[in-house]
Amino acid sequence: MAVAASVAWWIGTLAGEPAPVFAAIVPLVAIRKQDPFGAFGVSAGRILGVFAGVLIGLAALQISPDGGVPIAIATICVSLAAALVLRIGDELNVQITVSALIMLFLADTAQSAGIDRVWETAMGAIIAAVVVTFMWPPNPVAAVRARLPRMRGQLGADLTATVDLVANPREADEVLERVRANQLLARDDALALPGAERALRWNVLHRGDRATLEKLTEQVLLLARLHRHLRSLARSIADATAEAIDDVRPAHGDLERAARELAATFAPKLAAGDAQTKLDHAAAALDDFAARGQSRLAIVIEIDMRRMITDLRAGRVAGEALPA
Description:
mainly alpha
């Protein structure tokens, strides 16, 4: 941020502007997120917001050159309505309102100030994008890969804790809350994937990693899907009555064995053949569980466990095959 803002100020003075504040502000806004992948998108949205805000402000001054409360209120409302349409990602583009109000503040020199603000903002955005690309280069593959160990670890631990509720239902609320929180984290991991893909598309340093990112994306999507099945399983057991739990408890050993074999498949370096063997063992243990437990709760538990086994065995999410 310091480098980009300083360079923008320096180049602005070389271009003839004695105090290019607007040029230096853009990198501070564009790079303020911890995720550097969004810097260029924020800069582009800011430029668009400046153009729209300057036009709205100049139009307001054409209606009432002296400004005043009514024209200020109208400018705020119109610019915020435009901010709803010209969003920056999921956020309102409040730069439109800021630029429009600055035009009202600079009413005497609004036209020249508007032109200066536009070119300074464009220059600051370009400098921010260049600095981020070469000084702080994003690595979407590393970012996505870093999520996988946490997702795998949480999924295995939550599966074991969920199955243990059959033997110890008193911890149901605590386990269910943890499973819910981890499932939401997995959902957020999946929702972040399009951003990583966009970042890689414009990344001059990591463009060759597209195939790797696709494989990692498939793994994240599969783990997120398994988290959804696990949350359904945890909810079914947590909401079950004491009588229903008692009906299932005699087959808890088979269920525990199925969960243990299933959790073992989440290991990151497990060979494809070993994974299939463990899935076979998990399915066999689930068969034993189903043979011993015929209650409604047992059927619901079996369904959710079968879904997890089926997804892992097929290795497919939305028609995309997972690599072995």
